[in-house]
Amino acid sequence: MVPRLLALLTCASLLACLGRSPNAEFRLDAPTVEVTDFDNALFQTVNVSLKPGNQLDIVDNGQIFDAAVEEIGKAQKSIHIVTFIWTKGKVSNRIIDAIAARTSVGLRCKILVDALGSFGFGDLEQRLNGIGCETHIFRPIPGQDDLARDHRKMIILDGRVGLVGGFGIDDKWDGEGRKDDPPEWRDSNLRVRGPAVLDMQQAFSENWQEATGSLLPADAFPKPDDKGPSRAAFISSTESSIATRNDRLTQLLIASAKKRVWISNAYFVPSTPIMALLTRKAHEGVDVRVLAAGDHTDTKPYLLLQRARMDQLARDGVRAYEYEPAMMHGKTMIVDDNLVMVGSCNLDPLSLNRMDDGALVVQDPQLAREEAQHFLDDVAISKERIPSDMPVRKTAGR
Questions:
Q1: What is the DSSP letter of 26?
Q2: Which tens digit of pLDDT belongs to each residue from 31-81?
Q3: What is the rounded distance in angstroms from the CA atom of residue 252 to the CA atom of residue 46?
Q4: Domain limits of the chain?
Q5: Angstrom distance (rounded) from CA 70 to CA 75
Q6: What's the pTM?
Q7: Closest residue by Cα to residue 135 from 167, 99, 166, 105
């Protein structure tokens, strides 16, 4: 049942992509952004400012579950989880066992799962309720807008530690993202301590209010630890008929690039304005690279449109790659030498227009270097898209 529902969602997304007029899409003026301080541009674009004092760690692939179990085990007051996909399996059992150990000593646990992504969640819901969690299904189907899903993926502990990225609670996110049998999806995630966690908590509270009609207690928003080296913020995105924050943020990051913009995105079907920005940057001499899912994808109907866009960009000087070992599910962007974005935001019509999503934006040269190396490692085991009317490049683009 779930694959059929997701297939219908994919088809609806493709129809939205094909039927949308470029004249109805948001466009950010690139020259204006290029001469503006990034902090000021970010505040003007999404009403969020980067805050100092954050500590970031990369917890890609199956490391996310090790980090989740560790941080749940250290939680003192609350466990908040919102996810698009939660299914039965070893990973689910690990997370539930870790939660049970904390709820047994009085911690509060609140969980939201999306009705479509976690279709058939009933048995897990009963199990979670049985260990003391308050669990809700977000936007039951049928509803007012069955395409407006909650696609966020966050685990928040005590309002002080957050885990965010593209992961779901499912066995296919375990492992190293380097093989397809059994499937091990390649994904990118971050652990954050500091003021940005409160942004994540606020995004969770919005979804919790909608699902339950209630507010979180005041102690869910403690005074943050602010001793880390990174400036960061979590930018949440919700449905909009013209421009979500995901759309605005994506365009802002690309428009601000002066040296490079390296994008990893599982479902690369960007809008005309985003395509135009990527082309503009490549023509200006910016190192523009895109890595997307290849034949190992859970949305085969996307490949035709994705490849058409990637080939178009390749003709305009963008390096475009498809990840070969397994499904590539990450959603990251590296801009110049110090900006990184990691979250749940896809570059497809659903995420850009209809879904609740979110991403952590970080200003930190060390994190940018680490994420850049991971990008290059992925490119080394990917296939470059070379349109038939272009000469074959001799290097792998490292």
A1: -
A2: 999 889 999 999 999 999 999 999 999 999 999 999 999 999 999 999 999
A3: 10
A4: 2-384
A5: 9
A6: 0.94
A7: 99
